[in-house]
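Morning - glutathione inputs below, output right after.
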Amino acid sequence: MITVHHLADSRSQRVLWLLEELALPYGVKRYERDPKTYLAPEALKKVHPLGKSPVITDDARTVAETGLIVDYLVREHGQGQLAPPPDSEAHLRYAYWLHYAEGSLMPPMLLQIVFDGVEQRAPRLARPVARAISGQVKKQFIRPQQRLHFDYLENQLADADWFVGDEFSAADVMLSFPIEAAATRGMLDPDYPRLTEFVRRIQSRPAYRRALERGGEYAYA
Ligand SMILES: N[C@@H](CCC(=O)N[C@@H](CS)C(=O)NCC(=O)O)C(=O)O
């Protein structure tokens, strides 16, 4: 039995969506974020020492890290769905995206969230200085890095609807969260029409809609 330890409003929404795409039975244990810190509750550390989400249990196994969870579910339970054949060139490209989403694309997105927090939460007297420093970091490093990645991703969709060519795959599920996060923050439209259309395309999939019903509130949909 697969159980998704799902933190409200988080990356783990992707795992619910993947399970719906694969039409696999699963349970959801939902955890709420601390309203002040936005961190996961301590209870999640009982499942995995880091207390991060997603993490899944599959009978006696515990699997953490979204990319590995996606890879594991497709390999163990996918019956050949949503991934190119293991020894194909397309599979190398597929595996690349599974690593890239969290390893390369998320860091500049996270930095933005951290520096937005610095601007909003600095004590009132320090706020002008905090904003000035944060503004410089965003201008000189974070935005150019985000543009580098979005330009790259936009180009990938020049000749195909999906990141591994004409077929929808679990790589599209994996890439969804950072791209949705960018869309929600107004970072895509109007400069990135293909990425904007990608978000519309994934969000209109029936399995995506079903996953929203299972997972509850999700600010990026
Ligand atoms: N690279 C990890 C990141 C896990 C992660 O940071 N998850 C966030 C949810 S979006 C989390 O659990 N945040 C709450 C916390 O850090 O306490 C993955 O993809 O699984």
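Note: The CA atoms of residues 108 and 171 lie 19 Å apart.

O.
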